[in-house]
Amino acid sequence: MIFPDEYKHVGMTKSFCPSTEEPIYFLTDYLIAEREDPQTGGSEHAVYHVKKTGEGLLRKVEALKTIASGEEVVKYSKELNIKDRALLIETAKKLCTGKVNTVVFTGVDKHVTFVHDPDLSSILGLEILDVAPPYPSWLSLVVRRLEASGIFGDLQIRFTEKVIDLRLFEGKNTVFPCSASGLEGKCLDSDVLTENGHLLVGCEISRTLFEMRFPKLEYSFVNLCPFKSEIVVPSKPFITRCCRSENSGLVTISGFDGAVVHWGASEYQVAEAIRKLVNSLRQSSEDLNSQSKE
């Protein structure tokens, strides 16, 4: 796949067969040539890789290598957020059928870029690992809101959700940590327990509080802590939350790398954690590729 890191590296020209005699802007690594097609009334495109030398704002073109041209190239008809790399890869993949292998995109700011031989495997999948209620889960709501804002556009990622529905454990003998959950059962913050045989659904802190309040009662326990749970378990790289602030940061759980934020983390902290995780995963992937080539 060829997908320029920044659209500032992509230039446009109306000369369909650009000359190496003309100098080119120093940032231009790729050149998209466009001309009107008199037969169809539409436009025809060619995409080149630019090899250049020299110093200053304008450089000498040493060579233009054709990446795609003619029927191999289509221009997407709508303006998109061309900073959303995952969106462009997914859109290009749908359009690359038959002879087409390259899609030219125009942004809402009128800048252009392209994707050649789109590869969906280049999009990093992250799992939102959380519990509910509330619905949607708090972490899902925050991540999806951030995603919609475009803050992750350059990271080339897509999210899936793995949310454990705590309604599965509702019952008159179930104890949940907090009455704010609205779940059917008893709550550790508001009810007094006098009998054995309750099921506590919570984390390590919930268990400690239960045993401090009701030291003589026998009970069973479902652990929701992502570090120790048998049900809140990641299946891929993930973002999750924990009520212990000291557990925040980059972690590995069940063999998967992930990021943990505090239970009450802000949107900024969630976005920062995801960015750190993605950078770490990308770096690890690059290191493995380098080692395999040695």
Assess the beta-strand content as a share of residues. 35-45%
Which range best describes the helical content: under 10%, 10-25%, 25-40%, 40-55%, 55-70% or over 70%? 10-25%
When the domains are counted, the total is 2
Number of separate strands: 17
Q: In order across it, which strands form the biggest sheet?
A: 1-3-4-5-2
Please give the radius of gyration in angstroms: 27 Å
Task: Give a quick account of the main beta sheet: strands, pairing sense, barrel closure.
Answer: 5 strands, mixed
- How many helices does DSSP assign? 4
Q: In one word, what is the shape? A: elongated
End-to-end distance: 23 Å
Low-confidence stretches at least 5 residues in length (pLDDT < 50)? none
Return the average pLDDT rounded to an integer. 93
What structural class is derived from the secondary structure elements? alpha/beta
Order of helices and strands: EEEEEEHEEEHEEEEHEEEEH
Summarize the structure.
The protein has 294 residues and is an alpha/beta fold.
Description:
- The protein has 2 domains: 7-119, no CATH class; 123-294, no CATH class.
- It has a 5-stranded mixed sheet with strand order 1-3-4-5-2, with no helix packed on it. Strands 10-9-15-17-16 form a 5-stranded mixed sheet, with helices on one face. Strands 12-11-13-14 form a 4-stranded parallel sheet, covered by helices on one side.
- The chain is built from 4 helices and 17 strands.
- With 294 residues, the protein is an alpha/beta fold.
